[in-house]
Amino acid sequence: MADPLYELLAPYFDSPASPRPVPSVQDQVTAKYLNRLSTLPLASLTSSEPQSLAQSSHTALLSLQSLSARSNSALVASSEHLSSLRTTLPQLATEAESLRNDIPKLDEQAVAFSEKYSRSAENEVLDRRKKALLMARNVDRLSDILDLPTLLSSAISSSTAQGASNTTNYASALDLHSHIKRLHLLYQDSELVSSIYQQTEEAMQEMTSNLISSLRAQNIKLAAGMRTIGWLRRVAPELDGNSSNREGTLGALFLVCRLATLVSMLSALDPLRDLADQEAAIRLRDDNPTKKGTDAWSIGQQTERYLKRYIEIFREQSFAIVSMYKSIFPSGPDTTASDDLGLKFKSLGLRSVSQPTPTPQQQDPLSPLPSALSTFPLHLVGLLTMTLKQYLPNVQDKSSRESLLTQVLYCAGSLGRLGGDFSLLLADLGQDDSDEEGDGHGEWVEAMKKHRVLAGKLESLASGGSVRGMKGLADGRAKSPNEVK
């Protein structure tokens, strides 16, 4: 029934009264409405149906207006895109054609890249990229390794600034050096590790120089000296292994440094030495024997001050050097007694009858050198005797000369406790050029006698009568000085 009804209503469309186009018969909305009209009574077509259609039209108009308000921007954009679609589609077709033409070239480049960076064959570029990626992943480790020379130099510099009392930084520096040395042994082909190792060796040479310089300190103690020698054994093991002696080359180095300190301390007496030289010049210029008894004491006054201070420094430092050396470099149990005995008799210029006969190895000129301590006291004694022979004749006062000779004997006895007694080598120091008796040793003999008597009294107090002596001294304090002898 829909088709006849459609044919009945179709002529009313597309006419002056209704300019609307004729709806399609296949339209679902049209077919649905025609089916609805066939179900309505005839009276409703003229009464309620026009109102229903007007209401539906108004509702549709309101919906279109609200939709236009909500989707205004979207509609405008859609309109613009629709207007540009005529130019966009040909451009898209042109670019698609260009892309289709460039695909073979892209394929060729991809194949060439794959062949160039293939892992199946050796490739320098790929190796460089691998190394760069490896360095990027291990940049923190590389930074730590590169900072090792700086840390080592900082530890050495801080230890040098804080002095020999600080042992922590030197120990840290030695640990860092051991770590870098281990890295160099593991990665000998690495240029980076080799460069760091070279910088480390330069820093350790600086540390060695600082340690050697610390051995020349005036107020160095035994503990500091032992620590310094221990560090030198770790830093420069070649100094400890080139010699067959137990102390190695470090023993000679220690003696040379302490000798330099002694010479520098004695050189501080140069102002007094200049005055003594002036008195020596006056003594050599003045050959009149009548003036010898008048102003002899005043001429030798400055020389006496110089020699007293010289002998005092020499006594303290020589004993400290030899005793510290023996504490740091102890000799073996089989050579201690013979070395001390040989040192003592050699310093006296005598030959010991109880000294053992030299072995063929000792007679061999190519045999290892003896200990540095065996000749060091002779050098010290040579410095002292040369100074005494040069300046002692300036002192003409008898009491002053006896005081100086006694001081020299105390110095010889102090060094003699370590096996270096040189008192007999100084027998000619008391000889006077104007002595008419011929032997010239009377003053020295008198000084020796007084020294032995005083040494005997001190020894008796220290050995058998120490308790009685202390008690007697305590009782003597309550008596007058004339009653205590």
Could you explain the architecture of this structure?
This protein has helices at about 1-10, 30-40, 40-45, 50-70, 70-115, 125-135, 140-145, 150-160, 170-185, 190-215, 220-235, 240, 250-265, 270-285, 295-300, 300-330, 335-350, 360-365, 375-390, 400-415, 440-460, 465-475. By secondary structure, the protein is mainly α. The protein folds into four domains: about 1-70, no CATH class; about 80-120; about 140-240, no CATH class; about 250-355 and about 370-430. The chain is rod-shaped and about 175 Å long. The relative contact order is 0.04. Mean pLDDT is about 75; it is low at about 290-295, about 330-355, about 430-440 and about 465-485. It is a peripheral membrane protein.
Q: What distance lies between the first and last C-alpha atoms, to the nearest angstrom?
A: 168 Å
Low-confidence stretches: 289-294, 332-357, 432-440, 466-485
Counting DSSP H or I runs of 4 or more residues, the number of helices is 22
Give the CA-based shape.
rod-shaped
- Count of distinct strands: 0
- Approximate strand percentage: under 5%
Main sheet properties: none
Structural class: mainly alpha
In terms of topology, how is this protein built?
Layout: H1 2-9, H2 28-39, H3 42-46, H4 49-70, H5 72-116, H6 124-137, H7 139-146, H8 148-162, H9 168-186, H10 191-214, H11 222-235, H12 238-241, H13 248-267, H14 270-285, H15 296-299, H16 301-328, H17 336-348, H18 360-363, H19 376-391, H20 398-416, H21 442-462, H22 466-476
Helix pairs in contact: 8-9, 8-10, 9-10, 10-11, 13-16, 14-16, 16-19, 16-20, 20-21
